[in-house]
What we know:
Layout: H1 2-12, H2 17-44, H3 49-72, H4 74-87, H5 91-118, H6 120-127, H7 134-140, H8 143-159, H9 164-192, H10 196-234, H11 244-280, H12 286-305, H13 308-328, H14 332-358, H15 360-367, H16 375-381, H17 385-400, H18 405-425, H19 438-463, H20 471-495, H21 500-521, H22 527-532, H23 536-545
Amino acid sequence: MKKRVQVKSKKLKKTSFLKNVCILLVAHVLIKIIGVINKIYLTNREGFGDEGNAIYSSAFQIYALFLTISSIGIPNAVAKLVSEKLAMGDTKGAHKVFKIAILTFGFVGFIGSTILFVGANYIACTLIQIPEAELSLLALSPSIFFVSITSVIKGYFNGRENLNVGANSQTVEQIFKMITTITIIEFIAQSTGLDTRVMAAGAAVATTLSEITCFVYLYRYYQSVKHEIAMEIKQSVNYKYRGIRKTVKDILAVSVPMSIGPIVGGINKNIDSMTIVRGLKNFMTETEAKLQYGILSGKIDTLVAFPLSFNSAFSSVLIPTVSSAKASGDYTEATRKIRFSMLVSVLIGLPSTVGMIILADPILKLLFPNQPEGAFLLQISALSITFMMLGQNINSVLHGLGKTMIPTVALGIGSTVKLLLNTILVKINPDEFILGGTAGAAVATVVCQILICLMEFKILKKSISLDWGIRDFVKPLIATGMMGVCLWFFYQTFLGIFSRNVSILLAVFLSVIIYMLLLLVLKVFSEREIKMLPAGEVIYRLMKTLKIY
């Protein structure tokens, strides 16, 4: 028995900040890659395409809003409360938060699933005016209950700084989703004669099945470590009894404010689904309007969101890190990690933006050869990447500091501006004004993200001593500009030698290498920041040997 406990304790052992980041980074990137592959398959599949993307995406955004209301704030809220109690040695109190959260949000999730199922027809026909989405909404509705439960489990282990659990469950979920989606879509294609409405619903069914699979994985993991957790609870110190009602209030006091921001964000995402088709019908047919919405929501949003997977790891780890620092009163190390995370966001976001602007058309032709439209939309939307990444980190830090309403207010203002711009720009025929139509919605999103980022950053600077500002953009901008020139030059040169697709891959590969070398030559990272990297000590010694540092 003793040996068994020791083995289990390894599974529950805390991991360091950067190791947690690396764990989540690998998982998030893998998940995004699988998601992109899934989107490539669906968009290029005969019978699905941009129209299928429009139907599925419109239903998914509504589903995501319900999901946000019932569960999106849960992982961070539970992680925050659990990490604070563990920092004080209250293991028993941390587990009590977990148990009560399961019951509370399980009930909330059930109500959310019921409402979406019952209201599917009204939502599809009246709110988003895409009647074909009703079947997809019905198929997605059970997922809300299961996601609510899995969110609590992920939050509990995140609070214990054991991020392997959530990362592995998401990976399993996405792999299962991809396999199931392809299987169901192919079956439907053979059975219904390429019925786009049914195929979109099939993709929704695959989503629900993958969420159930994620729940089963997390439940089995919890069962495997339950004995070790019980042993820890027996050794708990500083436990202070709190009744169920008070504990529920504690959970809701954190989760509700954390959820308000994502709820507003969910509404923000649904602005496109509720305004684009309506606006475009002023100067084009309904079918053409759906195709335009499908291009933006299916392909463009997927590509723009991909770089964020590299950043999500930092934003996820920052909440328990800052919460623990706040509980202990030691902000020094937390501030260093915040600054490092924001620098990495800039170093990933800027080249991603430039790369998508320069290679927008060839990228779409490479990934979506059967449906390559949307280059101009991608170029506009790419401008929001860096601001979205910085916003992720700032949002997490503010939540960790307990300032949960600040991101909500900023997001509310940004969403209001986006709604106004959408209402004005989408109705304008792009033949009369280049930034009209769907491009107007993309512009509105960029403006929205810039406003949110700037407002949140201003509050952050007032809340914590953070030596970070415009000067930190100078070297990354220089490196990005030089990389962009090289990328364009390489691509144009290789086009005369190789095929378009090979030219893209070679140009990107060489440009990434040059960009990384430029970061070293320009000394973008300080000695301390280099040593924060995996194998940082070895890298720094090598740089010293090469006389770069």
